[in-house]
Amino acid sequence: MRDPILKIKDLKKYFVTSRGTVRAVDEISFTLFEGETLGLVGESGSGKSTTAYTVIGIYAPTSGKILFRGQDISSPVSARPKSLKRAIQIVFQDPGTSLNPRRTIGQILELPLRVHRVGDRHDRRKKVVELLRMVELPEDYIYKAPHMLGGGERQMVAIARALATEPDLVILDEPTSALDVSIQAKIINMLIQFQKDMDLSYLFITHDLSLMRNVAHRVAIMYLGKICELASAVEFFENPCHPYTKMLLSSIPVVSEEEEDVKPRKIVSRGEIPSPVNPPPGCRFHTRCMERNGVCSKALPKVVEVGEGHFVWCHLFEEKEEG
Amino acid sequence: MGEVLLDIRDLFVEFKVYEGRLKVLNGVFLTVHKGQRVGLVGEAGCGKTTTMKCILRILPSPPGRITEGQVLFRGEDVLKMPPRKVQRVRGKRISMIFQDPTAALNPVFTIGDQLMTVIRYGSQDTLSRKEVRRRAITALKEVQLPDPERIMASYPIQLSGGMRQRVCIAMALATEPELLIADEPTTNLDVTIQDQVLRLLNELVEQKGTSVIFITHSLGVVREMADWVYVMYAGNIIEGGRKEDLFRDPFHPYTQGLMRAVPKLTGGGIAEGIRGRIPDYLDPPPGCRFHPRCERAMARCERERPPLLPAEEGHEVACFLYQG
Asked: Quick one: fold of A4-322?
């Protein structure tokens, strides 16, 4: 295994509101290795985007540590050195709102180069053209405004902007969920190619498990601010353990019989994700779990390693280990 | 197969915009039989929702204009009906569920108020207040909402997205329509909630024998929700067939490309998508609208529009590759 690039330790992010404290991220820990894609999967309200925003520095963590190559970066973006901002970049979900509508594509792509003082005007111009070529967009797009581009093309620009500073870690926050599948395919394949060419590490946030199967090296499932299962992608889909993971897998609409066989049987999805303001005590998932027992509503499950690098946070597996 | 309930024939729709005319629908053919669940699948901007709006005559006009074609509901052309008659069809014999339940419900009235209004208008005879209320509660029970009495008194904002969509389903089915049009009803929902809503919808339409047009951009969802699937591209139905046939052996190069591009749960990477993007409706390509993106385009494809013809039993396609 390669060196870790990002280490998250007991990260908490709470938001204080007039109606109570929202526990968006509640003590999660994971590690991302160099050159790896870690998929962070969960439904809306699970805290996956909050995790991403805390890593990039949009939010300062309530407690816990974020280590980037051993260096503590649990500070908001304003307190971070410029070199760190260069090294960690993000691509947002909606390229319609993440690109400035009053700038041309050329200006948008040049901005990170100017901020980080890359070359003179001439060099930057050359670099912008290079970036466009890299994402397979024609050179004359320099003069176009974002609204003249299709959704897929806009996302390509957003990706080119993120890669302009030659980062090491890129956070991808649902980069294709607003796009059609044929465009998604193109963008995903491009991202995989860039990862190989530039040795990038990806923290890939998504709600789409089928996509994760094809992109991520490892997958972590989040539910209501907690991680409930973490494993390598292959292991994860062959041997899902947590009842929530099984429920998620069984709910995915698929297009072939072979895929139906991957889905766990006899699991029926039920209930809805509770409010993170007052999360249920004990295991967060126990209100919807088919296999819950007495202890689930009382104590938080401890992590159990059920296979190599396969971690589950569930009481069912704790008992097995003890017995 | 049952009798024909809805028959859309050669439908053309244009939108007038500042730059000119957007030629959106380009001769749509679509048939729904009684008791059938028909899926209409296609990517953003292909004309799925426009087609639905023509069926209900809710296409905003201007800028939209139906230039040609017929929408036959039980043999009668909806496009030629006087407005009062359309009103009697809409919401009673044909009802709909929209993508965004938050926008479909009025935020300042309780669920009970809105549901009871639908029931009162939808019924042939005048009902007593008590009877209307009883039916509303039954409708909420049918969509498996817990504590219907409390839901009746709630405002939409007090319910979750999944619950709101259940309310919309209850409203759509409360008048016992013959045809239900569901336009991306689960697109905004999380996958576990989507699963529950789809299962519920399937149970209800089977139990009531309602015919359905299910509009979605997701091939996976359409596979769960339809017996017969139509694939739409740039204002044309390019393929239609029994679900099993279409998914096992798609004919049209576009459908094939789309199938390949869907990420599979079995892994194996994602195939390259379809090159290019959907055409500009101001100046769509002549002939088959897919030909500039098609790997197997021939000279003929640039000149003629391929008609939708059966290529084999229960499977039709609009592509010259299958038409001598």
From this structure: Rossmann fold (3.40.50)
